[in-house]
Design goal:
disordered C terminus, 222 residues, alpha/beta
Amino acid sequence: MTRHKKCGTKRQAVARPGFERRMAREEINELPLKRWQGPIHLLTRQQEIQDAIDHLHKETVLGFDTETRPAFQKGRSYPPALLQLATRQEVFLFRLAPIGLPGALRDILADPAIIKTGVSLSHDLRELKKIAPFSGRSFIDLAGEAKQLHIKNHGLRGLCAVLLGFRISKSQQTSNWSRRQLSEAQLRYAATDAWAGRELYFALKNLGEHYEKGTKTLSTTR
């Protein structure tokens, strides 16, 4: 298991009420930049994957995301190269090219007792199912929850700005995720996206409880 460690991250502030307008790009760019600073596990070997899965089965809420090599030619596409799952304390990155989508990992995605949360999940799930079929359960798309609460920003970066008061970098979004050796910047970027999804889940839950609507059914386990 390849591990990349930095200092632990602090719990983020809860959501603030009053989001009836869209936060402009210029406003977002003025916010402080944050990224995941905790442990990152890059997984490619069977035993380390199984160890990670055993650990993840103990969780109740996971931040979820995937990364895919961009296609710059019309009609060309690539399968997801990386699948990220974040707990409160660490992030697990599964490289899909060498391992595919193992049954143990599909079990996590299909487990109704584990909430998987992120933004624009339908495309990610559709592409993952092309690698291996599975029944995705307990996935919560944060964009849909945000709309219910009248939040005008629906992307991951915009939601972080509105709900958590910081911005995340998207500089690595169009980098080559299929390269043999991922850079430290790519690993940190991928981990940040999954971590942010989990943080936003709890921010939206808190905001939903404040208004007593929208996200009342979301899990309360931090």
